[in-house]
Amino acid sequence: MPEISNDKTTAHAYPPKEIYNAWGEHAEELNMSISQYIIRMVESGRKNINMEDSSSDTLRELLQQRATLSRQVERQRDRIKDLERQLEQTSQSEIASFVTENPGVQTPVIIQHVADTVPGRVAGHLDALEGSLIERRDSGYYPINADERSEMSQSAPDKIQ
């Protein structure tokens, strides 16, 4: 670290009084003058931060990543809303169609009809979920864990899961 020498130039800084006092206290703890302290702190900072590498590139990259992730999150939210809407409409439209075909039908008959038609609807739901939340293997369905879903979304970032 450079020391105060006979060949010196004046530099001015105008820190708030609290900061200057904190510098002074720290300088005393290190047994050095405030001038020596400021020189050492500035030089230490210069060695740890390369202003040539400028964080603007890093900041720009982070902002781009954030924008990309925000778009992906928004697409996922839209997809979830769409799937929820489809699920709701499927169940509701099934009941509405049955009531239209059978005016005056009573609740127990509607419940039985819904129960009888579940297998057909479940197959469609399984097809929609397979690959995004569940996978088929060994003649059964298994949840895709978060790590596998993350790997799948990273390998196909533009594919909506």
UniProtKB/TrEMBL annotation:
Keywords of this entry: Coiled coil
Residue ranges that the Swiss-Prot or TrEMBL entry lists as coiled coil: 59-93
Name the record gives this protein: Uncharacterized protein
Organism whose genome encodes this protein: Halorubrum vacuolatum
